[in-house]
Design a protein that fits this description.
Elements (H helix, E strand, L loop, with lengths): L1 H6 L12 E8 L4 E7 L3 H16 L3 H6 L7 H11 L11 H16 L4 H20 L9 H13 L6 E5 L3 H12 L4 E6 L2 H11 L2 E4 L3 H7 L2 E4 L10 H8 L7 E5 L16 E4 L1 H40 L2 H26 L4 H46 L8
Length: about 400
């Protein structure tokens, strides 16, 4: 984790590496990945990349190498497809990762570092992620503690979007819970923490209200649901406190979901009128059921990944003939314009409508003449004959040699 934090936005180091033609960075709570399209062999480029990243981030080369994993060729697409589909996540089938893959793609496009090669990789992965969630149940049931907590609360309170939610604790699970609430459209949220500054920091990010633990009675009086996740060794929500809060609530129900181990909420608090208390055992039962159903979906998701990788492989091979096809289209357009100009000059005075029709005819002829050759060339390239097809096309039409990274 310390190294991951030091690396941060890994892609910035790739800017100074001549071997990198395109790149994009995927960064989540648990991973930092650099996707790159290279102008030289993977092994040579890998060494250049490690040097560039080490220098850019001030990280010892040996330390960086110890924590690297490297994929190349089709395995890059397979890896990112599995990531987007939730198969490579800490929690199987998590839904947030698909959005993070999409964000990485958009950021790369906005920065101008993503070209046609990586666009294909990311579109294939996003397609795999969307299909996995539309065609299987890999992401149907909640599979994180925070999402399960919200599911339990909804079982008592109904739709949470118009409810008030309090998060007690500003650590990893607390932050995850705030994000989960935002993802469900809950806008009335608050964060309570022993260190009020940390609560304020998170609250400002999500438009929430901040409380200190000394204000817990007021916070609980305000809330409809409270999710607790502190690192305290003793309960922070006592039964007496909850009974006092209930007396102020005008018969409004209160749901307490205790995610902490050891417990944050005294067990007797659940006996107060109108209070429903869920603990870790309640969550564990739901999570176990959820994960069993998700694991059953893995073979179907893997089949989707296989299909998307095969589609990527075919389309990526087709990219190799695109520079040649572009050169052919430019050559044809140059010829069309010269011949059109010559024809109009030979005809003398031609009214604008007739000139427009002649130009339309010339464009249509060129387009139709190139259509079938273009389709066949791409099909041949998709079967692995890209180099042979490209060389034949260059020779037949006298096109200059050109290769993309």
């Amino acid at each position: 984790m310390e190294l991951r934090e030091r690396i941060g936005a890994l892609g910035f180091g790739a800017e100074g590496c001549p071997a990198v033609g395109e790149h994009a960075t995927l960064q989540t709570c648990y991973r930092v990945e650099l996707y790159a399209r290279l102008s030289s062999g993977v092994e040579d480029a890998r060494e250049e990349l490690i040097d560039a990243l080490s220098h850019a981030h001030g990280v010892e080369r040996e330390l960086l190498i110890d924590h690297l994993y490297v994929h190349s060729e089709d395995d890059v697409a397979r890896h990112l497809c599995r990531v987007a589909a939730g198969l490579d996540s800490l929690v199987l089938g998590e839904t947030e990762i698909l959005g993070q893959v999409g964000d990485a793609f958009e950021a790369g496009k906005a920065a101008g570092t993503v070209g046609p090669g990586l666009s294909l990789v990311f579109r294939s992965a996003i397609g795999a992620g969307r299909r996995a969630r539309a065609e299987t149940a890999i992401g149907v049931n909640p599979a994180t503690a925070s999402s399960m907590a919200l599911a339990l609360a909804e079982g008592v309170l109904g739709d949470l979007r118009m409810k008030r939610a309090l998060i007690v604790g500003a650590g990893r699970i607390g932050l995850q819970s705030v994000k989960a609430l935002a993802g469900r459209g809950v806008t009335q949220t608050a964060v309570a923490n022993r260190t009020r500054g940390r609560a304020t920091e998170i609250a400002e990010r999500f438009g929430a209200t901040a409380y200190g633990l000394d204000e817990l009675a007021d916070a609980l009086t305000w809330a409809d649901v409270a999710i607790t996740a502190t690192a305290s060794e003793t309960p922070v929500v006592g039964a007496a406190l909850v009974r006092d809060v209930v007396s102020r609530r005008s018969d409004r129900p209160l749901v307490l979901v205790d995610l902490a181990v050891p417990a944050d909420v005294e067990r007797d608090a659940g006996a107060a009128p109108g209070v429903r208390l869920f603990d870790v055992d309640d969550l564990r039962a739901g999570l176990d059921d959820s994960m069993v159903s998700r694991h059953a979906e893995v073979p179907r998701v893997e089949a989707i990944v296989d299909e998307e990788v095969e589609s990527f492989r075919r389309r990526y091979l087709e990219l190799e003939v695109e520079p040649v096809l572009s050169a052919l289209r430019r050559q044809a357009e140059d010829i069309r314009q010269r011949e059109l100009e010559r024809t109009l000059n030979n005809l003398g005075e031609v009214d604008p409508e007739t000139a427009a029709r002649i130009e339309h005819l010339s464009r249509t002829l060129v387009k139709k003449l190139l259509h079938q050759p273009t389709v066949h060339l791409r099909e041949r390239a998709g079967t692995g004959d890209a180099d042979e097809v490209a060389d034949a096309l260059r020779e037949l039409f006298g096109l200059a040699a050109h290769r993309d990274p």
